[in-house]
Amino acid sequence: MGAKTERTSMWKFALLGVLGWVSVFLIPQPAEAEYADVVINNYADAAGMRPVVFPHWYHRIRFRCKVCHADLGFKFKAGGNKITMAKIIDGKFCGACHNGEISWSVENCAMCHSGIPGTPTHISGSTVQRLVAPAYKSLPQ
Amino acid sequence: MKKYFKGLTAAAALAVVLPVANANEAAPLVMSASTAVTSAELTGSVPEKLNVSKANVFNRLLKKIKDPNASPVDDGIHDTANDSVHALQPPKVAYEGLPKSEYGNHIDWVKALDDGFLNPRYDRVDPEVEPFVMDLDIVRPVKASVPDVVFPHKPHTQWLHCSNCHPKIFIPQRGANQINMSAIILGQKCGVCHGKVSFPPTTKSCKKCHSKPKPADWKPPLSQATVKNPWR
């Protein structure tokens, strides 16, 4: 008798366990943006455009850091370059390649201006962001 | 989250209970100790309905990335109402075949370059330009007990130009650069890249930089509070 109830509760446990495991894979999991994706929203929101999402990984597969960060003058600071469309069409910053020659041209607005409106400028997955308690203030660069 | 934990505990129970049930028939002698535990669990020393407060969940501050290398469509920063987002390449497609790592993009970029899986340009237009690579290791002694830091110029110069780091971030002079982990985590010194783009400082990656073990007779220096402890 005792053994029987023990066994049924065991199976209840087992069933619960299996269901639990299955549900882990079925419910959609919150994802996180790719490490080092940069959201730039210095001026975009104010101009009625979506903020820019810059995928670092896509560019580093094709170019070494040196090309943008030494030759093109991109500072190592999200939002620190004050990039505007006027500079881009003058061939500066993104415009050095996104000119229809090395890469697609600037009329593809929404390829870059693709972020969720209102997202602040940041680098996704950065150490400062991942701190459990926020750092008092990021030190000046 | 709660479901996840339920699943975990229940699955753990399953893993424990099932072998016990089988072994019960086969080897009753060996089982006596563990059956005592399971029957105690089932007959009441553990209440049937758990009333553990939500404030006491297992690890309330541990943030885990559920889907590393999510596609732009469901990464949470791209606006899916924007049709162009669906034209963007998902990182997983691009990472096919690249050597893996446990942090950052979960790609070992330096190894990928060394093994010839990548051929990024060193010049904006000319794919033939060769990088100016310098193979020089700098050993930086560390005060604490962690291994000393060996900074390899080679992988850095494969990707970067001297002017990216010198002289603004690192003064190219022995002993001129005070570096500490707090500054790095807050995005200064090494942290200008490491923790933003290149592999981040995490518990798993400490030894990538802290790679030179202390000499066998090394002892951690005693703090002044210990040396001058009046109650010692």
The percent range for strand residues of chain A is 5-15%
Strand-residue proportion of chain B: 5-15%
The rounded Rg of chain B comes to: 27 Å
Sheet with most strands of chain A: 3 strands, antiparallel
State the helical fraction of chain B: 25-40%
- Number of E-type strands of chain A: 3
Looking at CATH, the homologous superfamily of the largest domain in chain B is Cytochrome C3
Number of helices of chain B: 9
CATH class of the largest domain in chain B: Alpha Beta
CATH architecture assignment of the largest domain in chain A: Alpha-Beta Complex
Number of domains of chain B: 3
Question: Would you write up a description of this structure?
Answer:
- The complex is a heterodimer of chains A (141) and B (232).
- By secondary structure, chain A is mainly alpha-helical.
- Chain A is 37% helix and 6% strand.
- Chain A folds into 2 domains: 1-30; 38-129, Cytochrome C3, CATH 3.90.10.
- Chain A is built from 6 helices and 3 strands.
- In chain A, strands 2-1-3 form a 3-stranded antiparallel beta sheet, with no helix packed on it.
- The longest helix of chain A has 25 residues, at 2-26.
- Chain B has 3 domains: 2-56, no CATH class; 66-94, no CATH class; 109-212, Cytochrome C3.
- Chain B has helices spanning 2-26, 28-43, 91-94, 109-114, 153-159, 162-165, 181-185, 206-209, 224-227; strands at 137-140, 148-152, 210-212.
- Chain B is flat, with a radius of gyration of 27 Å.
- Mean pLDDT of chain B is 85; it is low at 7-36.
